[in-house]
Amino acid sequence: MLNKFSLLMATLALGVGVSFSPVALAEVPLGGDDNAYHAYNELGVKVLTRGNAYNVADVLADPTVRIFILQVPFEEFDLSCCESIMEWVRQGHTLWFYDSRYAPYFGMKSYYLAAEQFRGRPEEGPIGDVKYKGMAAVVLSFENHVSMTGVGQCTIFIPEVAPGVYSAVAVEGDTVPLLRFASDSPALAALRRDGRGAVIFKPLLWPESLSGKRFQNNLLEYSGGFGVPGIGAQGRFGEEIGASAPYVETQFAAKSQIDKEPVRVPEKRENVISQDKYVYAKSLDDQSSNVDVKKSENVPPANHKDANHLVDIVTLRNGSTLIGRCSNGEFHFETTSDSLKIKTDEIKVLNVSKNSWSLDKVEQKDGSVASGYLMTEKIHFSVNGEERVFKKDDIKEIQFNVPMSQVRNL
Fold it and tell me: Residue 242: which region, alpha, beta or left (left: phi > 0; alpha: psi -120 to 50)?
């Protein structure tokens, strides 16, 4: 069975140069190969697109609908319907929306990002029956919410809502972040409880990349009021949605937002950056590093003739290799579950990802390996007594404490 509410590329592996194609989109039932999840036709999903945007009242009156998926372009939707939708949510149902311009009408706060603020790659993808420009990016799970059970990272599609401006929501009030670039970034997926139901802001995603399929399945089960299967399909947790669920009181009133001026999006990326200059996960392009390193610096330092002397080896994006010592005392590393500060003398190899499809990786001397995002932006490196400072984006790999006997041929 096909539907239109998620970018589910079950037949394509995610990689550099992948484009979105309607032919490649596969729709759930997710979980059809896993008895832990309900079949799609048991979930009570109704997708509202531009083609049927005038049937809101019919959807809300349908007793079989548990999950209302709003994919009508923001500019074309009758926002006066939002008050009725929120009353329906409070009765024990769930609303999904994908464009953060809707956020204020459903109790969240819109947040806008420029491409320079995160690591991603330009793509196109359909939300409902409209194709959007946007960015594909890897995001992490930072919240211990039941819907994130078994979820680590996901590859998502972030729609462009104005030229160079991308959709997210602020983490404030009763908004629970589900997917983020880093522990202090805005949310790329989030939820809030209201009454006996829930409102969920979510992106399109690739199910076969990272934890995408698990995340999509979890949200469907949670939104339908069935709870989320535990690890290994043991038990169900988070049965918080439904007519008999506990009522969550909130102060949000959709009508107060409807009566205000319509939501305005910054018209230019420059306006976004002027409001928030922080880089949450910096973009990396395919060009070589602009660091100018002479090949002569690849020669082992003269004062390091002892074969047992330990050195650090840094490989730059432009292909140059330097031998010396890294003087950073520690590196800050964000994983799906922890914010790590790893002492330099505990690291064996540090690999910095060049694209959005893979994560940075640190291998420690004790054999443990962590994948995530390297948050340390500047790497200090001493070559023949001369201190150099490189940006993280200039670095491909650093090997630590390598005996000189192993680097004779460099």
Answer: left
Which residues, including other chains, have CB under 8 Å from residue 160's CB and lie 6 or more apart?
Answer: 132, 133, 134, 135, 166, 167
Pair 220, 30: CB distance under 8 Å: yes
Locate tokens 């799906």: which residue? 336
Amino acid at 199: V
Nearest-angstrom CA–CA distance, 389 and 244: 60
Helix (H) or strand (E) holding 331: strand 330-334
Q: Can you tell me the distance from the alpha carbon of 336 to that of 354, in angstroms, rounded to the nearest whole number?
A: 19
Residue 56 region by backbone torsions, left for phi larger than 0, else alpha for psi between -120 and 50, else beta:
alpha
Q: What is the pLDDT of residue 99?
A: 94
Q: How far apart are CA 408 and CA 410, in angstroms?
A: 6
Pairing between β-strand 176-180 and β-strand 187-194 as defined by DSSP bridges: antiparallel
Place of tokens 């999903």: 45
For residue 159, what are the β-bridge partners? Answer: 134
Compute the mean pLDDT over every residue in the chain, rounded to the nearest whole number: 79
pLDDT at residue 54, rounded to an integer? 65
Contact 378, 389 (CB under 8 A): yes
The larger pLDDT score, comparing residue 288 to residue 116, is at: 116
Amino acid sitting at position 164: G
Q: What CA–CA distance (Å, rounded) separates 182 from 165?
A: 19
Annotated domain spans of the chain: 22-275, 295-406
Indicate the pairing of strand 94-97 with strand 67-70. parallel
Q: Which CATH architecture has domain 22-275?
A: 3-Layer(aba) Sandwich (3.40)
Other C-beta atoms within 10 Å of 354: how many? 16
The Cα–Cα gap between 270 and 254 comes to: 30
